[in-house]
Amino acid sequence: MAKILIPTPLRQYAEKNNSVDVAAGTVGEALASLTTQFPDLRKNLFNDEGKLRSFVNVYVNDEDIRYLQKDATPVADGDTISIVPSIAGGRC
Amino acid sequence: MLTQEEVSRYSRHLIMPEVGVEGQEKLKAAKVLLIGTGGLGAPVAMYLAAAGVGTIGLVDFDVVDVSNLQRQVIHGTKDIGKKKIDSAEETMRDINPLVKIIKHDVALTSENALDIMRDYDIIADGTDNFPTRFLINDACVLLNKPNVYASIFRFEGQATIFAAEGGPCYRCLYPEPPPPGLVPSCAEGGVLGILPGVVGLIQATEVVKLILGAGEPLIGRLLLYDALAMRFRELKLRKNPECVCATGEMKLIDYDHFCGIVKQPEPPPLVNEIGPKEVKAMIDERKDFILIDVREPHEFQIGRIPTSNLIPLGDLPKRMAELDPNAQYVLHCKMGGRSAKGCDVLRAAGFKRVLNMTGGITAWSEQVDPSVPKY
User: Which of A8, A55, A63 lies closest to B155 in CB terms?
Assistant: First the structure.
């Protein structure tokens, strides 16, 4: 099982879970499993063409999947997958 | 050269070999621009002034509001209604009259950004919106100045240094901003008052380290802080070879347009909306309608309209079966944005008589019942 960490802004679409364990061989499979479990997350993570949105990055452990094998990046037992969306707040 | 007064004031720095007289002189010579004097800017400004950063620029056009004081500790109750840069300057002068404070009472734009930022060594981004964050990034890349970055949401913070020599920029991390409405703002989502204190001081620490040339700067690393879990994590940031910062195609653009913010002319009045006073009249006349409050339960507890029924926006699809599609509905939230979405949800499900109360419970408090608190 790999652990997907759900960031605060997206928890409202994942029944308030801060992490979800999934059985998956790749990042693509892990995210598919996550969005099957929580369909509301889909439009926040993927655009209409099914590609990861450009203001959302996904990391396996501490490495950006854009510099690994993207969706095909392998996931091993015990890996942590982080979803990191851009947040703007600061002055507010 | 440090004056005798400065030697006394900064003695706890001077006796540390990592700072010493040489480091303190670097701090004195440094020019740092803080963009935003709110949650993040407040602690950064106060500590950098205290530390003896010689020139500190402040950019802000906002005025102090009572709802800022829960976290923007540079401003006090006496400052409500004052310009934030004036209030910030006053606090900083009290902390350290030896530093020079330069006030820029403007909104940063593509037209003025390069001129304002040019004279500083380091930029600290403490703003609250995507257009300005992209603008600051792009201007830092063009001017070759490090952007000490932090952002916060509810219980979570992010911090890093963008656009440092050889390091990644904000666009390497996020090529594009989210479309409006997809990511909630702080005003909608809230923020733990202490959070910008912690995250802002990470920013201030990195500013001081860059000036001193000490330690390992937070370049190429994104620090994530989760206050609820009290956990820090670190992710690797890489310079994206395809990014405009690497291809040399960077130029300042229309950032509102880039972020999908369309300046709309006054929208024509919609028949789908109703003002709070008219809703009050409908209640008084005992008109047959159902008032639905689509806010969250904790907001409902702050204040409510007595005849309202709470169905948080997120629960609306699930609870639609409880509702008669032929009845008359009025939906409201805090400001009118979420309830407009709620109206769309109901109309899409075939509800014909759905009205959005404009201005939400805030407008209700202003126009109908001031005993309902604004928040």
Answer: A8
